[in-house]
What does this fold into?
Amino acid sequence: MKRVDVVIVGAGPAGSWLGFRLAQVGVESVLLEKAKFPRYKACAGGLSKKTLEFLPFSIEEVIEKSMAGAWVAYKGREILIHDIGVAGAMVMRETFDKFLTQKYREAGGSFFDGTCATRVEEMKDGFRVDAGDEVWNCKILVGADGATSFVRRVLGFGQHRDVCVALVAEMRIPKEDMEALGNCAYFDLSAVPHGYGWIFPKQNHVSMGIFTQRRDENLTARLRDFCRIHPLLRNGEIFQSKGGALPVGGVPRPVQRDRALLVGDAAATVEPFLGEGIYHALLSADLAADVIVQHLNYGRSLSTYADKLEIVIDKNIRHARQLASLLYGHLPLAFPLLVQNRIISRAVARDIIGKSDFSAALRHCLWRLPLLPLAHYRGKSRGEAFTLARRTERSEVERKGQSLLPK
It folds into this structure.
């Protein structure tokens, strides 16, 4: 039996970042991952500007495409949102997650992939964790093992039922369509109720899919329709796809019990507006690292983790929920009034991708709320709008996108 301070189950961004933070201050930890790395992970792979700025090291070597803006569409109307500074970057999760585990190991951590935790026993001074052929005894156990967390289940945290759902696909599209998309993401708000279809450019293909707040949607049918209707996807070939649930935070739920903590998707930290989870996963791990160090060094209670999560993450998620309700629940009015208003859409985009939070984005929208009854549609068809805007604005977007890689 090996003894360490902390056992972390799950080597996604939350688990690796937590281990990295602990290793930096000399806390001995072990990171267990049931899959053999690198492994495919169903994820759109979009990293916002604030995520890039959060990490203390460059991730340039795993960036597939730097992002300069985004197309947002609804029933044939489109707007290109740019002039928002650094928008973010696109990655493939198999390379990004492996990169983070390498940073953890470089900091002194011990990483074991292909090692599934099969048994957890609570003991007087911590936990016994059986995984593969090894047994670890630890003072603190952290579940960073995603939406279907083994740690959450085996320790009786209960099932989290507030989820969004998504179906992700990797698609090869013709070269001319890749060039047409350029370094912009694409969001189609008419692809599914209370959600969107997306197209994210990667180095040699696109990641695309369907996200919705409605669990009863037939995502396969919606994805098929999205591919059939959208001109960039009609001639594409899907070579990999996977769906899953996204546990949404902002509601009361257990994230800490005795000497056990949950982080990332296991702690339900996804926001319901875009379904983005990586930034909050990293942030939850950061909060957990601070609490664990305080507990090990000074005996302070681990229960402060739940309080910190509420203040830093859950409050923001509730604002994201309000923003989602405002937009997705009133799209025929909200799209022309809020999204097609360039001042509003750029301000909201800056708030969401930058260090501001969803409360700032919500405020930018709410001041226009009294005008909702006056909103009406104007615009060209989907193909005409895309072609016209691409012709007039593409060169500027390309110029701005050339220097987006983090230094």
